[in-house]
Every structure is written in C-alpha cells, then in structure tokens.
C-alpha cells in the first residue's frame, strides 16, 4: 500500500531524499522550491515510511501524511473585493496546502449581493477544471440561501463554508461547514484553527468518495505515471512557472500552451497508445498558457476500441 | 465605543458587531466614535449604520498642530502632532516651494520667507475629510453587494442607509428615525 507524504525542510542534502524515494520505488508527486526551502510531496510504500521519516529527520526536515496530495482545489469568494478577501479565503487555501493540495483562490465578478448575485458560464467552466471547489459565503442565512444559483450547476463537488447553517441547500452541494462567515482578520485562535482543520477534513471526506467512484472504473493510466513521462519534455522541464505539472484525481494540468505543443501531445505514446486516444486534451479556460489532460477510464478506452473494431 | 445591533438574523447580528469593531480599529476610527447603532435586515435587504462621533470634526490649521517662532525672515516650526506632519509639509511645499522649506529633523522645519500669520492659518485637515473617512470605513463594513446608499450627516452624527435596489421613502424614514435616536430626539 502506497502512502502519500510531504517533506518540508531545507534543500540541504535533498539529493539523499530523492535518491531514497527512487530506491524504495516511490514517486515524487510535487516538488516546490522557494529559495532555500523545499517541499516534496511523494508517494512511497507504507513499509518504508519509518526509514523515510528517519532520513528526513536526519537532514533537518519534517515529514507528515498529506491526505489531499495529488488534488487541485479552488477556493471561491463572492468577489475579489476587500469585503471577501483575504480572510478567511486565504486562510482556507493555506490550510489545504498544509494537507498537500494545490489550492487556488478565485473571486467571482458579480457574486456579491442577495438578488443581484450571479455566476457566468466561463466562471463555472473554470471552477469545473478543479477537483473540488470551496465556496465561501457570508453571515446572513437568507442571503446564503438566495445564492443557490452560484453553485447549483457546478459539476465538481462543492463544499460550502458559511456563517450560519443554511437550510435546503444539501442537494446542491456535497457538504456545508458553518461557523466561519465574513471575517476581517486572520483565523488564528485555537477555535478558528480547529475550524480550518474541519474544513480540510470535510474536503478530504468528499474527495475520498470521488476517489472511490474512480476506483470502480479506474483510469487507463495513473496521472502520476503520465507526469513522470511529461517531465522529460523540455518545455515542461525548463518551465519556470511554480508547479509546472499539477496532478488532478482524473488527470493533470500542464502549464505549457496546447497550441505550441500540439505535435508533442498528439505523438506522445504511453503503454503502446497515443495520449490523444486515452485522454481528452483541452486548453485551460483560465488562459491559453495551460493545458488540461483528462485521462479516460479503462471502460471508456475499451468502448472506444469496440467502436473502432479493435480487439 | 458602544455598539447596539438590532436585526432579524441572530448569527449576523453577532458577526457584524465583531466585524464593525475589528474594521474600525483597523482603520483607526474606533477612538473617535462614541456610539453605534446597526440595523440589519437581510430579508429586505436594508442596512442602517448610524454612528455618533465623540466630537464634531472641525477644521485644523497649522497652529493647532505645530509651534511657530519667527526669526528675521525665517519662520521656525516644531510639529507637535505627528499625524499632521505629512499634511503640513505638503501645504508648505505647495505655497512656498520645496527650496524654501528646510526640514532639519522629522518634526523641525524652517520656512524661508514664511509669514507667521499666513502659515498659522493654513488648513491641514478639514472636518469634511474626517467625516469622509468615517463614511468610507462604514462602507467597508457594509455588505459589498448592497450598493444603493443614502447618507445623512449632521454635526457629529453620520447615518448610512443601504439597500440592494431602490431606496424607498419608508426606508429613508426609518434611517431618519435611527439618526434622530442618536441625538436623543426620538
């Protein structure tokens, strides 16, 4: 059984860490270096966990389990105005990072107000690129209930974080975490830290269900395997963008433009098949600098083969 | 600062009391506010925020914030209230030019060719500016989407009525009632 762990420490002797991951047959899921600090998310066999912990301690770092590793989550606010940002949205995004997820913060253009709040199709399409979305709503029960249209048509799991507990929204979202609401300062008290953990645990619970559904009809290839292959491609390898490849539960986000690299993606082969045959490759809706790869499931690939008359 | 909240949402009442207190402390206006009344009606939606300031913001001149001492053709100035230092400098630069203002330390200046009477009467803070800052802070506390607003300002009392669409006459009457209650009339 593989376990996902996160190393948090300095770059000093990090070569030993990478070497050990390789030796035990593990995979580096994400490696982020900021100045002299290094964060490495890895998947390693459970039986090698004690040895890995020992090594991490000896090189002066810290290692812990990260349940949300390999996911990208959007934390969505009603607007980017100072009424909604930075607290508590950024506090939640930071907590998700502590749990191993790549989290992004996003504000709607016209999400404020009660009767006038709205979401555009392009905003919905962007949110649907992520594994899950956390929607941060305010302090008034009636206003929260009136904002159902903001999230009812979003396809990915939505977790609502609100002030009071709203009624009648359970069918339109996966989970509701009350007790946060609009805030003007950082969530730093013990009670608030506990609430942040509750939100991250709820996201973990929701994504665990999504993983279970995926396990019933597994992907043709695991995103981490595809990532290993993509890393050898020079434009990705040389990319200066932080986290040039981001893992999703059902694919990857690769931060190179599709239009400039269409030939590479069309000709890339994995397990004897072209990538374009086993995955849906599209341009990201955020901008044309990123490419979204959604891997097809085994049954989808088999079905495609049947239609094409292959055995 | 005494905060009184009335409204239809129990959670919202408590949350907005905390929000008001935090934001006013953040923008440095909590010390000049005596009493606050918040009427929160998210069901309409209608919000009335009324504040009574400790003193009516008045006009401040350089003489109120600095000591002046003429010496020949020069005027020596020592700033006694630090928060007005940028405004004093900017007014002096505007009138006499940067070449004629000699800033020896953070608070000590020499104005070459400065006349004591003219300099002492120069306005560095109008009361309106101070009231505008309080109104700005109140807008920051109000929910963002509630954009149709009506202000009532009288001496040291400022009241803001905010709603999402049309400001109806009965809403204005309600705001006026809250405003009058802050004077102790209603």
Describe this structure in words.
Chain A has helices at 14-23, 49-58, 89-98, 121-127, 141-146, 190-216, 223-230, 234-237, 258-267, 275-278, 298-307, and strands at residues 2-10, 27-34, 37-45, 62-65, 72-77, 102-107, 132-136, 158-161, 175-177, 245-248, 251-254, 269-270, 273-274, 279-283, 291-295. In chain A, helix 3 (89-98) packs across helix 6. Chain A is built from eleven helices and 15 strands. Chain A is globular. Chain A folds into three domains: 2-65, ACT domain (Alpha-Beta Plaits), CATH 3.30.70.260; 72-214, 3-Layer(aba) Sandwich (Rossmann fold), CATH 3.40.50; 223-307. In chain A, the strands form four sheets. Chain A has a five-stranded parallel sheet with strand order 6-5-7-8-9, with helices on one face. Chain A has 311 residues and is α/β, with parallel strands linked by helices. The two termini of chain A are 32 Å apart. By secondary structure, chain B is an alpha+beta fold. Chain B has two domains: 2-57 and 127-183, top7, de novo designed protein; 60-125. Chain B has six helices and eleven strands. Chain B has helices at 10-26, 62-65, 85-96, 116-120, 127-141, 169-183; strands at 2-7, 33-41, 46-53, 60-61, 66-71, 74-79, 101-103, 108-112, 123-125, 148-154, 157-163. In chain B, the strands form three sheets. Chain B has a five-stranded mixed sheet with strand order 1-2-3-11-10, with helices on both faces. In chain B, strands 5-6-8-7 form a four-stranded antiparallel sheet. In chain B, strands 4-9 form a two-stranded antiparallel ribbon. The radius of gyration of chain B is 21 Å and the shape is elongated. In chain B, 28% of the residues are buried. The interface between A and B is medium-sized, with 25 and 22 residues.
């Amino acid at each position: 059984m593989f376990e996902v762990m996160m190393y948090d420490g300095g770059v000093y002797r990090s070569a030993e860490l990478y070497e050990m991951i390789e030796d035990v047959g593990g995979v580096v899921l994400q490696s982020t270096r900021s100045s002299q600090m290094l964060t490495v998310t890895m998947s390693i066999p459970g039986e090698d966990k004690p040895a890995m912990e020992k090594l991490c301690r000896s090189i002066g770092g810290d290692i812990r389990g990260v349940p949300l590793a390999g996911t990208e989550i959007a934390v969505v606010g009603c607007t980017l105005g100072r009424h909604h940002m930075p607290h508590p949205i950024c506090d939640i995004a930071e907590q998700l990072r502590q749990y191993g997820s790549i989290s992004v913060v996003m504000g709607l253009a016209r999400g404020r107000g009660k009767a006038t709040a709205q979401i555009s199709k392009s905003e919905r399409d962007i949110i649907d690129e992520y594994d899950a979305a956390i929607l941060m709503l305010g302090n008034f029960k009636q206003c929260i209930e009136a904002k159902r249209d903001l999230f009812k048509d979003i396809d990915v799991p939505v977790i609502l974080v609100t002030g009071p507990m709203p009624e009648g929204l359970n069918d339109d979202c996966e989970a509701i975490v009350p007790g946060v609401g609009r805030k003007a300062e950082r969530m730093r008290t013990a009670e608030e830290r506990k609430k942040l953990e509750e939100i991250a645990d709820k996201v973990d619970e929701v994504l665990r269900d999504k993983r279970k559904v995926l396990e019933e009809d597994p992907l043709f290839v695991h995103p981490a395997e595809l990532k290993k292959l993509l890393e050898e491609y020079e434009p990705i390898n040389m990319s200066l963008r932080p986290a040039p490849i981001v893992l999703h539960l059902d694919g990857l986000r690769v931060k190179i433009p599709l239009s400039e690299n269409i030939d590479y993606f069309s000709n890339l082969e994995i397990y004897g098949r072209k990538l374009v045959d086993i995955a849906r490759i599209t341009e990201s809706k955020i901008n044309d600098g990123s490419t979204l790869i959604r891997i097809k499931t085994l049954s989808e690939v088999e079905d495609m083969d049947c239609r094409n008359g292959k055995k | 600062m005494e905060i009184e909240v009335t409204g239809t949402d129990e959670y919202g009442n408590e949350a907005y009391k905390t929000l008001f207190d935090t934001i006013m402390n953040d923008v440095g206006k909590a010390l000049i506010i005596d009493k606050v009344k918040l009427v929160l009606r998210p069901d309409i939606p209608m919000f009335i925020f009324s504040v009574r300031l400790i003193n009516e913001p008045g006009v401040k001149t350089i003489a109120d914030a600095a000591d002046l001492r003429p010496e020949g053709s020069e005027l020596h100035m020592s700033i006694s209230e630090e928060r007005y230092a940028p405004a004093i400098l900017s007014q002096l630069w505007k009138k006499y030019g940067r070449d004629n203002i000699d800033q020896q330390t953070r608070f000590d200046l020499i104005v070459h060719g400065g006349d004591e009477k003219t300099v002492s009467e120069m306005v560095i803070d109008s009361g309106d500016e101070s009231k505008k800052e309080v109104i700005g802070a109140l807008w920051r506390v109000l929910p963002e989407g509630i954009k149709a607003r009506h202000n009532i300002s009288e001496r040291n009392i400022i009241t803001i009525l905010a709603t999402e669409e049309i400001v109806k006459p009965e809403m204005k009457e309600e705001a006026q009632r809250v405003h009058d209650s802050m004077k102790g009339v209603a």
